[in-house]
Amino acid sequence: MPVLGVVGVQWGDEGKGKIIDLLASGADYVVRFAGGNNAGHTVVSGTDRFVLHLVPSGALHERTMNVIGNGVVVDPEHLASEIQSLENRGVSIRKRLLVSARAHLIFPFHRELDAMAERWKGAGRLGTTGRGIGPTYSDKAARTGLRVGDLLDRDHLTSRLRAAITEKNAILEKVYGHRGVDAEAAIEAAWHAGQTLAPLVCDTGALLRKAASTGRTILLEGAQGAMLDLDHGTYPYVTSSSTCSGGFAPGTGLPPRALQRLIGVAKSYSSRVGEGPFLTEQINEIGELIRVRGREYGSTTGRPRRCGWFDAVSVRYACALSGVDEIFLTSLDVLGGFERVFVATAYEFYGRRLEEFPAHLPTLDGLKPIYEEFPGWPDVLRNCKTFGQFPEGARRYVERLEQAVGVPVTKISVGPERNEIVDRVRAGTQ
Ligand code: GDP
Ligand code: IMO
Ligand code: MG
User: Fold this and answer.
1) Distance from C-alpha of 110 to C-alpha of 122, rounded to nearest angstrom
2) Which residue has the CA at smallest separation from atom 17 of ligand 1?
3) CA nearest to 208, candidates 30, 21, 26
4) Calpha distance 334→348 (Å, rounded)
5) Residue 362: which pLDDT band, with cuts at 50, 70 and 90?
6) Quick check: CB of 66 below 6 Å from ligand 1?
7) Which ligand 2 atom is nearest residue 40's CA?
8) What is the best residue among 239, 270, 297 to mutate for testing ligand 2's pocket, by most ligand atoms within 8 Å of CB?
9) Using a 6 Å cutoff on CB, does residue 8 contact ligand 1?
């Protein structure tokens, strides 16, 4: 299956890192196409646990080339240090990583602008990761951004970056009363990081088109999740990129028709970090129990994640948006031991039943989830090797989820480790 995509179909943190790592053993390339180091993708191998932010999740596979596509926003200082810390832990990533010359760069002033915009919004803040993602994508759209290729020539970098900092410092000082960033220090740091990255920089689009046309296996690694998509998510409480499958073509330089199979990763319940609508959120002991059992703390910021029941309305919408062929369902083990579990299969809006996710959500007033209730099951899933060994309650839950979402669940993850995964479709297990 030469070009295969993996996307999150909730609010991010569905377990994409684990799934990509699992599939990467058969991939020639693993390619990030959107987002930046707002992402935190966890990969567990034995006793080793890695949280990858910019480096793709094929990092642990010796024969896999990892590509940071042009749609990603790259903080060069962060990337240089992420590479170094992987090397320090014995992962020789430097010779298996490529970065698009077209990817846009995050600089310290983007991070400051991110923080200042959040402070300015006060109670209306988005709860961003503070990594400068929004301001960098804004500069890209405004055609004032710098790209990875701009790091390679010192004079060029100096004049472009100094001009950018002059403008941004004026905004920081005059609008936000911030002291601005030190231009010379920022230029020096960018040049230094750029020197580390220089050997990895190339035209990744040309490389990937050639790889696809010669039948090499390419795994497209989504970041964030559909409900954080700039167009289709819960705007304005979203990130600034296209997180659905459609983002891969502009974000890699591969043609849209290259995609042959798409996996949606869904967690067996819901979580969200940051602000914004979350209809099935449980602000009570249930939410707390899910958080504790699922270790739901942000991989990037360490913030406690908001937790709640599975929302089949939004996952159905997300799968339709991306064209998901099959779902890999993660963290089903976390729900083991609950007396009862719930799934939202529709919403109610002032007495009216809604089957579709609403296009505009200015407030949550009047919108309520309609739940179906399921008996729980004992906490034994981590010991199960087949779907047939699952307790009946867990099997019924999975069957109802796939029916409500309208997409088959083909694999079920029952723990953070690579081998903690069960095939749904195998003769004799259903
Ligand atoms: P990503 O951003 O989609 O890659 O997900 P994160 O890595 O941010 O968060 C997922 C968390 O769930 C990580 O801590 C994973 O190690 C963990 N995880 C993944 N799959 C499972 C699973 O099936 N069961 C449990 N208990 N944890 C899982
Ligand atoms: P992965 O790839 C979960 C959320 C932030 C915030 C909103 C905007 O690990 O699934 P941003 O910094 O992007 O401007 O923040 O998006 N967010 C994520 N939430 N997982 C992620 O990535 C996220 N990336 C951004 O918490 O609500
Ligand atoms: Mg994450």
Assistant:
1) 19
2) 416
3) 30
4) 28
5) low
6) no
7) 9
8) 239
9) yes
Residues 295-314: pLDDT tens digits? 999 888 888 999 999 999 99
The number of the ligand 1 atom at minimal distance from the alpha carbon of 223 is 2
Say which residues have a Cβ less than 8 Å from residue 49's Cβ, sequence separation at least 6.
Answer: 42, 43, 416
Cβ 324 vs Cβ 407: under 8 Å: yes
Contact 41 CB / ligand 1 (< 6 Å): yes
**Is the minimum distance from the CB of 333 to ligand 1 under 6 angstroms?**
yes
Strand partners, 399: none
> In the structure encoding, which two tokens stand for residue 3, read together?
């070009």
pTM: 0.97
Please state, rounded to an integer, the average pLDDT across all residues of the chain: 96
Of the chain, the percentage scoring pLDDT greater than 70 comes to 98
108-113-115 Cα angle (round to 5): 100
Q: What residue ranges define each of the domains in the chain, with the CATH number in brackets?
A: 3-100+201-263 (3.40.440.10), 104-197 (1.10.300.10), 266-427 (3.90.170.10)
pLDDT tens-digit readout, 50-84: 999 999 999 999 999 999 999 999 999 999 999 99
